[in-house]
Amino acid sequence: MAVQKGLAIGDVAARTGLSVSAIRFYEGRGLVHPERSSGGQRVFLRSDIRRLSFILIAQQIGLTIEEIASLLSSLPERRTPTKADWGRISKAFRTMLDERIALMERTRDKLDGCIGCGCLSLKKCALYNPEDRARSLGTGPRFLLENISRVSGDA
Amino acid sequence: MAVQKGLAIGDVAARTGLSVSAIRFYEGRGLVHPERSSGGQRVFLRSDIRRLSFILIAQQIGLTIEEIASLLSSLPERRTPTKADWGRISKAFRTMLDERIALMERTRDKLDGCIGCGCLSLKKCALYNPEDRARSLGTGPRFLLENISRVSGDA
DNA sequence: GTAATTCCTCACCTTAAGTTGAGGTCAAGC
DNA sequence: GCTTGACCTCAACTTAAGGTGAGGAATTAC
Known about the structure:
The structure is a homodimer. By secondary structure, the first copy, chain A, is mainly α. Chain A contains 6 helices and 2 strands, in the order ααββαααα. The first copy, chain A, has helices at residues 9-16, 20-28, 46-61, 65-72, 83-113, 144-147, and strands at 35-36, 42-43. Chain A has a two-stranded antiparallel ribbon. The longest helix of chain A is centred in the middle third of the chain and has 31 residues, at 83-113. The structure holds a DNA duplex.
């Protein structure tokens, strides 16, 4: 089951709803830092469940693993985070969410004035060259969320 | 340059801002259907520019290629689409956008009551089992937009 | 003390939406 | 009439976020 106050990966998976492989993957990406038992098995703290749950929610909102890592990096590594620790993160998180919503709303409004009228005729159309359109992503059009205000390097 | 009233792929790329390879890829996925010159080179109609531009916008809003294909399939294949043709599409499009915005807003509101308070303590938290959480996607957490009301099979 | 679970690592597979490059043709300018 | 640039196909590579399975070790249960 667990090792002295710690949780095995399977327990954590059951409690978070994540798959075991996903949790291992997150460890590889630096999102969680379980300790190891003498036999080499991962041992998680209870607070890691919270971390992992946060990852789940953040992903639903569209953050990438790297962005989430960036947010989580402000949490204390070896101490159970306090309410204040989480509060800081959730503020940053909320800001991102607001930005994403705002962008979608702007796009919708342009759509109303643009495709809505049937013009779609280039140059004239506000949607073709919106300030939001990231032209320099390198690999061409990707997912919407790639074009939305990326975390600008910091948390 | 062009072949008798038609446009070469490079021209289309220049006018839409898409890469040549992306346009070829879209043809492979059935989003455009250029004709061929006697020499085997693609020949596009002017109306294909509009189609391709639509693809660009739809992608920014987060639709997948398949969803876009589904929308475009209601356009006439070999006749230049009318304003009414585009109007129908844009209506469906707007609906999707509205749904996506609504979902993000619901998530934000839950966030305010949940992470905002620092609870994040599973079971109790509205964010862990939201009606919006797609549990059956098979491969685990993906991008947000994969969890948002997919095009339900039709256009 | 052994059997059944659970866990470990490592390598390869998956999807989406393309990009890149090789090897070879088409078309256009002079 | 040939050279240059644009185009062709096809296969392999890319990123993100994991999943899957092999082969083997650690724990737990009886």
